[in-house]
């Protein structure tokens, strides 16, 4: 029996834009996803846009009961910035009523809400001003954060500022998976810098307010494994960690941007525009905890050809295809559970053993109806095995002293996923897209037992 620490948080993660639905109703204005879907629906899997998603806006009360039914004692979701502040300044009272009822229902069902402020859903009114490229985004996000703390601070004791900030940077400004879908390393760095300042300013606003609780940030941490011990591959791995992990983790925990990262950017003429007062904001306003999302490792090797100054991250490192890998055939992601142990030890030994939790971990599969049994329950044994393997390595890290306080699976119920729509399903509950009817999967019943026993 693997017994986890007392009061361990067993839960699931989700987000407003991927589950709420009612995308342009009840006072909500457009986000970049609403705009992009209107403009280029062919980019979205089977033309599945953000309008309906999983319909949580209309089914939240029953969903909170479902959370309790499968043993969730915590849930992480987000607030829609464009719903709460449709023009960036005016509070939408319909949104306030909805979120207060939603969070209260969670608490009534024994579910502790961890509320995130930004999950890739930039309001279009801010995008029209340049989005994260414009410093106005820092003040806009700070106002939004302060408003949320004031309106919901009596219901929420754990907050996070951003989910996977590196993703909206690279997907929007390097790899064309998010709007505005440009390829510009310099603009990406500026977006990242303003995102970091917005995070810091939100933490500062939290400390200055009356909310009682804790605040953190959620980062996607994929440990970097170089191809070999050759100095070129080791350097590629080091630079990969600088850009993808330490760029946000170091400032969040230590209040410092790695000197090596600054030097690398300077050498390649990629330094962002800064102001003198930024240093103090970054140095102070440290987080109380870290959420770490983990799905797959990052395996890299030295690039074969490089541009100087660098035009893309691939001028610093490129992907390495490990021959011995085990794959998720649906998502084309490597399954490597041991990385969760490596992350646990990294947090213990390199980051002051700050409190942290697994904020996302899960396995997506396509056409899950193939695995339906006679009672029409989806027998997702592959998902159970995936979680068991990862939890086993996490447990070992905790045994060795890593300060992990919870595990959240992605996700509570099948949800809409950006350009991929409902192609891959991740939920403990399946969702019928035609009726929005929910049905528990085998993994949901298994997770209920794990939570009840506080282990497996």
Task: Note down, in words, how this protein is organized.
With 456 residues, the protein is of the alpha/beta class. Helix content is 40%, strand content 15%. The protein contains 15 helices and 17 strands. The protein has helices spanning 16-19, 32-39, 56-69, 81-84, 93-108, 124-127, 136-152, 165-173, 185-208, 231-254, 259-267, 278-283, 338-350, 381-399, 442-453, and strands spanning 9-13, 74-78, 112-118, 158-163, 214-220, 224-226, 289-293, 298-301, 318-319, 327-328, 333-334, 356-360, 365-366, 404-410, 424-425, 429-431, 438-440. The protein has an 8-stranded parallel beta barrel with strand order 1-2-3-4-5-7-12-14, surrounded by 7 helices. The protein has a 3-stranded mixed beta sheet with strand order 6-8-9, covered by helices on one side. Helix 3 (56-69) runs parallel beside helix 5 (93-108), helix 7 runs parallel beside helix 9 (185-208) and helix 13 runs parallel beside helix 14. The protein is globular.
